[in-house]
Amino acid sequence: MSNESTRPTKPETHPGDQAPPGTPGTGENTCRTCQGTGKVNGKPCANCDGTGVVIEGIGGA
Predict the structure, then answer these.
(1) 16: number of Cβ within 10 Å
(2) In this predicted model, what pLDDT tens digit does every residue of 2-61 receive, in sequence order?
(3) What dihedral angle (degrees, nearest 10) is formed by the CA atoms of 12, 39, 46, 56?
(4) How far apart are CA 61 and CA 38, in angstroms?
(5) How far is the CA of 21 from the CAs of 8, 9, 41, 59, in angstroms?
(6) How far is CA 19 from CA 2, 5, 52, 53, 59, in A?
(7) Cβ neighbourhood burial of 54 (10 Å; 0-12, 13-18, 19+)
(8) Exposure on the CB side of residue 33, measured as CA atoms within 13 A
(9) What's the whole-model pTM score?
(10) What is residue 24's predicted lDDT score, i.e. its pLDDT?
């Protein structure tokens, strides 16, 4: 029997994220590359993987 179902899963990160989702001192921000649309030249944005948001440090953290 495999232990995979009992392993905690890592939050999904994207290339433009500064930290994994849920990291203290971070929050969602609009992706500057695609201005939150999730697309650049009709293709999924490579910076946010098409989500339109990135995780960044807040409050000068």
Answers:
(1) 20
(2) 555 666 677 788 899 999 999 999 999 999 999 999 999 999 999 999 999 999 998 764
(3) -50
(4) 26
(5) 14, 12, 27, 16
(6) 29, 24, 16, 13, 15
(7) buried
(8) 20
(9) 0.72
(10) 93
What pLDDT does 44 receive? 98
Residue 33's nearest CA partner among 50, 58, 57, 11 is 50
Q: What is the DSSP string of 9-41?
A: PPPP--TT-SS-TT-TTEEEEE-TTTTTSSEET
Distance (Å, rounded) from C-alpha 20 to C-alpha 27? 10
Q: Are 48 and 36 within 8 A, CB to CB?
A: no
